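Feature request, filed as a ticket because there's no other form

It would be nice if the structure record came with a short human-readable summary line next to the tokens. Right now we just get the raw output. Example of a typical job, pasted below so the devs can see what we mean:
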Amino acid sequence: MLVFLDTAERQLDIPRHSTVEGEVCGVVKDIEYKNDKVYLYLKNVNFISDELKDFKEIKSSSFLCRKLGAVCSFDADYDKISDCGVNIGSTVKIRGKINVYNKASNPGEFDMRRFYISKGYLFSAYSCELLSGDSHKNIIADTSYRISARIGGLIDRSLNPKDAGMMKAILLADKTDLDKETKDLYKDAGAGHLLAISGLHISMFAAITLFFLKKTPLSFKASYIITVFILFLYGYLIGFSASALRATVMFAILCIGKMFNKSYDSLNSMAVALLVTIMIKPLYVLQNGFLMSYLAIISIAVVLPIFAVIGKKAKGVISTLSISTSVTMTTLPVVVNSYYKIPLYAPLINIVLVPGMTVLLMLGISCICLRAIIESSIFINICKLLFAGSLISPDLYIFLLSGKFNIFAIGIHLFLEIYEWLMKTELTLPKAVITTGARGIARCLIYEFILLLSAFIIRKIKLSLWRKDKLINNRIRQSPAYNPTKEIRSIRKKRVLLFAGSTAVLVLNIAAFLIYWRKDKIEFLDVGQGLCVCIQYKGNVYCYDGGSTDRKNIDEYVLSPYFAYYGIDSVDAWFISHEDADHTSGIKGLLNGNITIKEIIVPKVLKDNFSSITALAEDTGTKVIYSSTGDVFTSNDGITFTVLSPDEDFPPDDSNACSLVVLMRTKEEKVLFMGDADTRAEEKVLSFMRGPIDILQVAHHGSANNTNSEYFLCTLKPRISIISCGFDNQYGHPHKETLEALEKTGTYIYLTDKEASAFFWFVH
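Raw output as currently delivered:
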């Protein structure tokens, strides 16, 4: 599997491409309506237009790329799709703006390319127009799609929008209508698994189905066969996620074993499920949900027994807590590397939430069935016949049963409200969510190895003690005069030592894994047409600018994930060159978020231009410092920031010229941040210093308009020059003249639009 992952990563390491308009054809695999758009998911994709030759080469470059499809989006009012009678299985011809999904270009950023590839898609098309489409239909897939849509409609008409979004996520794996606030709440509380169709849902659904079938005259074999058949139908209906496929295969093996009176081994069943998954859906191995699902089974099979070292099998609440804790411990590396934080009280909250899911699923199924019956023409005609001439209108009776007075809908609402209240209460507890940062693959593997090895050794010792205990009991039965007091004390002492030792090993393993050492470095983030620099030095964090004009909400999608990735929850000082959006848009969002910014330093000459940021800073308790040429900011960590420009007499109407130019110094390095400064600022810089310097942030995204003069660059002689600009930006940055001037200095030129974010270690 590791070989497959490595091969997949190398085959899919595709550079950025320009968006090209052209024609593409393919077979419709799925249809989706979300975010006011219509999405067609295509397989067997062929690029028709000559303009798309680069994408043809990508598709033919490897076996994996040849298997990947495209996602095409249409405006919501685009009714030609339905006019053409397009179904799942139809072959369509589409014209749109084509590109490949971008991979994550910053630490912590969501990897869009990896996400869609794991689902079987590499190419995206937007602003699409349907040119042609046949009426061919994949009967099984199209029927499944329409049944799912029908059930979703029944849920929508039975529940309020928020509850409906929740139940569609829980029952149909459809998160389209699930609001972000609810998803974040469940994720932060450690209950995010309840919103995905996981093994938990499949096992509960199977248990419910089997319970009712056993109440019928059917034989137990027939009940098992029908249950497995229903599970596979349900799995197909919801798209067989990695965890759903694993749980269905394992349950099928369990049923086969029971029918033939054979014992069941969870690890062997898991191995079979893993083989089936890799054969049917090999790209699932790229999903974190895949790892979570299989690690959860390993935890129950291998780690859970160590919680019974006292000698008795746990029952009731203790059993549930043991399962929850073992799963949490085993999946910890995946959780940390997925969310960069851990919900401390997740094992406790799941004691309440998980058992309630069985009732919630039954209420959901009952609500759907009731609504389907009420909407049937037979039921409506019966109502009209029974209530004809009575005071109660048949339509009113139907409304009472199907609307707000539907007892199942009321039950669902109450359950979800209680769940939400419990999770919000949990998050008010001290250290409810701990930001951990990500961990390397090596540390994750070491952690899992120690955990599983400890579990294996503890299990062996426990089995040995159990055998001794059994031997003593047999000797007592054979010889009533035998006095085993000394042996019993010895066994009890060993059990106590085993309990204490195993607890210490587990706690130390977790502590060693969670301890985080942040390495000193400077990182130029890829924010598109904008600039953001983050410096991590001896435990302190400093930033320079943080905005973009072509990437929206970078505070949410770039900066916050970046800080979470490194376990950063506060910034000591944030220097802002000037107020333009491509330098400040993300900072404004962060001031309203969970990151604490202690100080913001802005140019004094542009004081009046920072009113919006100043107001936000005052609301959050952030100190604002107005700076000008000659100001020096020092820290006890040995790093200094010297402001080289602008002077207070610079013209405030030219914000680029008034950019805050900062020289950062450590014992070994000199780094110069120029913002969007022009030649006047260059003169100020050269009046303070000469080269060489280690790193230069090239001014104004590499522009050659009244900045980045050849004399200035050759005088500074930077070893490394960083140009932060957007891919295919409208300004043509970086300009050819700037690149030529930089080349004359012999510097290494790094472009964020071509090579993503750049980081450099500090030398001590």
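Something like this underneath would help us a lot:
The radius of gyration is 31 Å.
The first strand starts at residue 20 and ends at 34.
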